[in-house]
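Quick one, probably user error.
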């Protein structure tokens, strides 16, 4: 079989791991810059794809049997004709892969706001000693009321961490009754959204819901930027209506130079790095190798995407 690999971050060592673990297959390595052109001939002849390719390429390859995404998100592929494609093609994502890393990034962001680490870093750069006056505004995470929007692996991991601080956790998702979410928002100290981009999650945290957050509350988004009204969130921060935000994902990535988030007070912008780890690429390769073995054996693959359900 022929395997098409997006290799922007792959070292020679990574490639050797793939080829040594999956012998007797033909590998084609290409960077994402080819996405600006029509489907590459090597892609059109490939049976497997490892990497996130342009969705418009997929219908052009009648040989394609399996795509292993290097992300959890797959929203860009929802618009394809899966009634037709699902008969010959499967897609797997990295469901659960980033849970530990992202949950720890969320914790780091919240604690940075609560313990004023973000402000202290700026003061150090400016060589300003503020010291004691900051102490009066510092918070702890103990016994906070936390809304977790989304019940996937990331929020489950985060829930375990927050339980160590005796946080009172309420879990909601887009399939539940939103009036229950609306009742809970005004009481929450922290709201964490970690959900995919689907019609059911679009603009869930709109102007009305953001305005209903209590003063001093923290909003966190590590799912998809489409979940929140970014203009309304910026307004809430500028007006000091909420206490802060930790934002990993945005509608536009990278942000334009004039985006309001760059200058928003009390906003930590983590630039879609939440799931990053020093061994991320190696782990992705090993995940693909494991799934390849299951594929060859005709077994169910890990992270199989069900486009009828949207996850």
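Nope, works fine. Designed sequence:
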């Amino acid at each position: 079989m022929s395997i098409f690999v997006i290799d922007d971050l792959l070292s020679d060592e990574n490639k050797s791991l793939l080829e040594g673990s999956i012998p007797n297959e033909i590998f084609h390595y290409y960077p994402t810059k080819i996405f600006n052109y029509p489907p590459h001939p090597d892609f059109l002849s490939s049976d497997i794809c490892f990497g996130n390719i342009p969705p418009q390429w997929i219908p052009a390859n009648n040989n394609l049997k399996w795509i292993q995404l290097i992300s959890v998100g797959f929203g860009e592929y929802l618009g394809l004709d899966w009634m037709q494609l699902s008969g010959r093609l499967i897609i797997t994502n990295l469901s659960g892969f980033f849970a530990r890393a992202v949950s720890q990034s969320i914790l780091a962001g919240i604690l940075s706001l609560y313990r004023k680490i973000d402000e202290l870093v700026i003061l150090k750069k400016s060589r300003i000693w503020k010291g004691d006056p900051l102490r009066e505004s510092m918070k702890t995470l103990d016994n906070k009321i936390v809304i977790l929007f989304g019940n996937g692996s990331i929020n489950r991991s985060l829930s375990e961490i927050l339980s160590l601080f005796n946080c009172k956790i309420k879990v909601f998702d887009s399939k539940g009754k939103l009036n229950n979410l609306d009742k809970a928002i005004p009481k929450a100290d922290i709201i964490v959204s970690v959900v995919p981009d689907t019609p059911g999650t679009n603009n869930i945290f709109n102007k009305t819901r953001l305005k209903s957050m209590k003063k001093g509350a923290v909003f966190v988004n590590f799912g998809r930027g489409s979940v929140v009204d970014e203009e309304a969130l910026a307004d809430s921060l500028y007006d000091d209506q909420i206490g802060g935000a930790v934002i990993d994902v945005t509608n536009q990535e990278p942000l334009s130079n004039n985006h309001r988030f760059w200058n928003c007070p009390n906003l930590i912008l983590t630039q879609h790095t939440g799931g990053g780890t020093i061994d991320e690429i190696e782990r992705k390769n090993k995940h693909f190798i494991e799934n390849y073995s299951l594929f060859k054996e005709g077994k169910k693959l890990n992270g199989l995407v069900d486009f009828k359900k949207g996850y």
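The chain has two domains: 2-97+277-296, 99-269.
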